[in-house]
Automatic annotation (TrEMBL):
InterPro entries: Flavodoxin/NO_synth, Flavoprotein-like_sf
Name of this chain's protein: Flavodoxin
Domain (Flavodoxin-like) ranges: 4-155
Organism: Enorma phocaeensis
Gene Ontology molecular function: FMN binding
């Protein structure tokens, strides 16, 4: 089995906690999908249609710039991609990552955190962005069990 990468975007820290748990359980590399411009509390105010996150999510073509370089994908066979659910799908920064990283031929397994929305719509949307990867069913991971699920999902 080749190496595993856990790539994640986290605005509040919830998804980062889950990503670290998965990476530790799998002895995987960890990569933060960090926007070039970090989100402020005002940016994340989903009740404000003028907030940065609201504007980004209203524009399906929006691809926020990321900080730093994308990881070299040559060494990885499996990539877990984690994110919070925003407006029923993944944040646009995650789209920037999946379209920019070379995921062709990789097994990609999404996971998410959410206050109430499921991951199915995000999984379908991500798979449509990079159809030449093998997309596995994702999982919403709000509580315990991330490590056990990740070991099973990668098997």
């Amino acid at each position: 089995m080749g190496k595993t990468l856990v790539a994640y975007f986290s605005a509040s820290g919830s998804t980062a906690r889950v990503a670290r748990e998965i990476a530790e359980a799998l002895d995987a590399d960890l990569y933060e999908i960090a926007p070039a411009e970090r989100y402020t509390a005002a940016d994340l105010d989903w009740t404000d249609k003028g907030s940065r996150s609201s504007k980004e999510m209203a524009d399906g073509a929006c691809r926020p710039a990321l900080a730093g370089e994308l990881p070299g994908m040559e060494a990885y066979d499996t990539v877990f991609v984690g994110f919070p659910i925003w407006w029923y799908v993944e944040p646009r920064a995650v789209d920037t990552f999946v379209e920019g990283a070379d995921l062709a031929g990789k097994t990609v397994i999404p996971f998410a955190t959410s206050g109430g929305s499921g991951i199915a719509r995000a999984g379908r949307r991500l798979a449509s962005l990079v159809p030449d990867a093998t997309w596995m069913p994702g999982r919403l991971l709000n509580g315990s069990g991330a490590a056990a699920w990740a070991r099973e999902a990668r098997a």
